[in-house]
Amino acid sequence: MKTNAEKLPSPWVSAIPLAVLTGLLYVVIRAFGGEAINGGSQIALLSATSVCVMLSIGIYRCRWAVLEEAIIDNIRASASAIVILLLIGAIAGTWMISGVVPTMIYYGLQILHPSFFLVASCAICAVVSLMTGSSWTTIATIGVALMGIGQAMGFSEGWVAGAIISGAYFGDKLSLLSDTTVLASSTAGVEVFTHIRYMLYTTVPSMLIALGVFTVAGLALDHGVSTHAEMYAATLAATFRITPWLLAVPLATGMLIARKLPAIVTLFSSVVFACAAMLLAQPELVARVAGVGELDFMSGFKGVLMTCFGPTAIPTGAPQLDELVATRGMAGMLNTVWLIICAMCFGGVMTGSGMLRSLTSIFLRWVRRAFSAVASTVGAGIFFNLCTADQYISIILSGRLFRDLYADRGLEPRLLSRSVEDSATVCSVLIPWNSCGMTQATVLGVSTFVYAPYCIFNIVSPLMSLLVAAVGWNIKRKK
């Protein structure tokens, strides 16, 4: 990517747009709360972008064409993520109205014991994400169902979302099918199997700590299951046609994932499967969504499309359950898409102007030994997530920035790829304006500020990376 000039902007000047963004987001969130994503955060990002543009052009004579090219490159890189996000919105609607999610919630209420629900949710999401290679898909499907079960059992939404996200990101991080795993290893120049094996030294201990915390929390928290679970199960059975045959939809989706089809193809196919199940198992609900009394071809076609792209509300007689089964479809993702595009504009001008590179040069001054190299990499990964608002850009920038430096210090590239994963990958979901944080907050219906303190695995992972580096466990230098 082209940048402004060979001479980088001053780090103090480069920090101004980031400071403006942080200040504006603080005010916006204080003013709008959970509604900040509906426009306030987007304006904050564009305002910080304009500040960066004015500084770049006014002080460093950067050409607008360079900045524009950087913005376009950033948005182009996020295009597939935006399509996936829209398909996830369609999945949320079709899996709910077809009865797939209500069926999983119903049987989950019968099987999962409340005392061990949190640790079981974390483990289930870890296994599913490990097999699928996608934390986003896991959270949007199994995670949504577990969120409903947890709310029915009376658990705090922060604890449930934290358990789901912790498990999903553990599996994503170690999966051979994960795009972030492949990206981190390839950016650092490490063979993917070597990368995965080396991550076990930090990832497994972090997950064990998370499972321990969720086990203790499940036993200690007052979840009030006796007053919610049975009522919710009966209400779901009265509203939806509950049958094990509906579980064929997630099973077929899993089979497509096992065949390593592209994520967009798999998610679109899953929507088609759910639409077919919706017409077969819940024709009355499809007619209700279409606004007619009796289902025919046109009303069925209308009801299916409305479920995919628009909001749906199925009255169940229980206010809390009404909120759970309500969906927003693709339209519900548009604010998130808008926010991602604005975030990509900010990350683009910061990169194209050279300001981002100027700020990251600060990290390089502290790299002397293995621990300082890992600490700088972890800090850079979190920093990139904050200022570029994108997980993939953070992985690429962290890997490229430190690759030559690790080689100069005689440190193995697998240490770099692991440090990038322990920070840029897992911490992205903890940042409200990051694409991962925005997406999971939208999908689960829980604010990032609410679930972040309970994402135990995501919090512990960068700390574990620092601890292992400080101890020097299996860290070798090349001659």
From TrEMBL:
Keyword hit for Membrane: yes
InterPro entries referenced in this protein's UniProt entry, alphabetically: Na/H_Antiport_NhaC-like_C, NhaC_Na-H+_Antiporter
Subcellular location(s) per record: Cell membrane
Alphabetical keyword list: Antiport, Cell membrane, Membrane, Transmembrane, Transmembrane helix, Transport
One Gene Ontology molecular-function label: antiporter activity
Membrane topology summary: Multi-pass membrane protein
Domain Na+/H+ antiporter NhaC-like C-terminal: 167-473
Transmembrane segments: 12-33, 39-60, 81-109, 115-146, 198-219, 231-249, 261-281, 337-359, 371-393, 451-475
Domain of life: Bacteria
A Pfam family that the UniProt record links to this protein: Na_H_antiporter
Coiled-coil segments: none
Primary location class: membrane
GO cellular component: plasma membrane
Family label: Belongs to the NhaC Na(+)/H(+) (TC 2.A.35) antiporter family.
Protein name: Transporter, NhaC family (TC 2.A.35)
Organism phylogeny: Bacteria, Pseudomonadati, Bacteroidota, Bacteroidia, Bacteroidales
